C-alpha cells in the first residue's frame, strides 16, 4: 500500500483532520505524515483496524530547536504599468518543537513502512502529545524513553516514568541544547546513602 493510497483513505475517513505530507529529500525517499494531535489516536486506530498497520516497529524522538529556513514566495510588483509576479526567496523564523516518530508495518498485509509524526506546540511549555500505546502496545517502552530523554509528555500512557535516567534527574539528555555535566559520577546510588550514614555515625563518635 503506497502513501498516496493511505492519504486518500485518511482524507475520506477524516475530512476535517489536517494531515500533512512531509517530503524526505534523501536519496532513499520515504515521505511521512504529520498527524494533528487532536485526531492522532482516532487516525492511529483507523490505520491499524482499517488499513492493517498492526505493528509499530520503532518510535523515536526528535528535537527541533528554533531555526531559520528559506522559503520561496511569489511577490507581485508593477513594471511599466503591468503587474509582474516573481519568485523571491525569504529567510523566515521557524519555531522549535519536539516530535515523536512512529514507523508502522502491516504484518498481516505485508506492506510498509508507514512513518507518522506527532509534533508538540513548542519545546518548553506545551510538550504534551497523546500516547499511542493503546493502539500499538510496542510503543509503551519507547514512549517512556522519549519522555525520559526528550521531555515529551504522553497523555494517556499507562506507566509514564523515566526508563533510563533516575527519578531525581531533571533534564532531558537528547535535547540539542542539553549541557552535559563536568562530572558524570553523580547518579545517586544506595552506596551514597550508606556512605553518608557511616560518615555521620563516625563523626558522632
Structural account:
By secondary structure, this protein is α/β, with parallel strands linked by helices. The protein has a single domain, classed as Beta Polymerase, domain 2 (2-Layer Sandwich), CATH 3.30.460.80. The chain is 23% helix and 33% strand. A five-stranded mixed β-sheet has the order 1-2-7-6-3. Strands 4-5 form a two-stranded antiparallel sheet. A hairpin with a 2-residue loop joins strand 4 and strand 5. The N and C termini lie far apart (76 Å). The mean pLDDT is 89.
Strands of the largest sheet, in order across it? 1-2-7-6-3
Uncertain stretches = none
Tell me the Rg in angstroms. Answer: 23 Å
Specify the structural class.
alpha/beta
Integer tally of domains: 1
Number of H- or I-type helical stretches: 4
CATH class: Alpha Beta
Arithmetic mean of pLDDT = 89
Q: CA-to-CA gap between the ends? A: 76 Å
Shape: flat
Number of strands: 9
Strand content: 25-35%
At the fourth CATH level, what is the homologous superfamily? NADH:ubiquinone oxidoreductase Nqo5 subunit
Secondary structure elements and their pairing?
Blueprint: H1 3-13, E1 20-22, E2 32-34, H2 40-49, E3 55-64, E4 67-79, E5 82-94, E6 97-106, E7 111-119, E8 128-130, H3 139-150, E9 153-155, H4 190-204
Parallel strand pairs: 2-7, 8-9
Antiparallel strand pairs: 1-2, 3-6, 4-5, 6-7
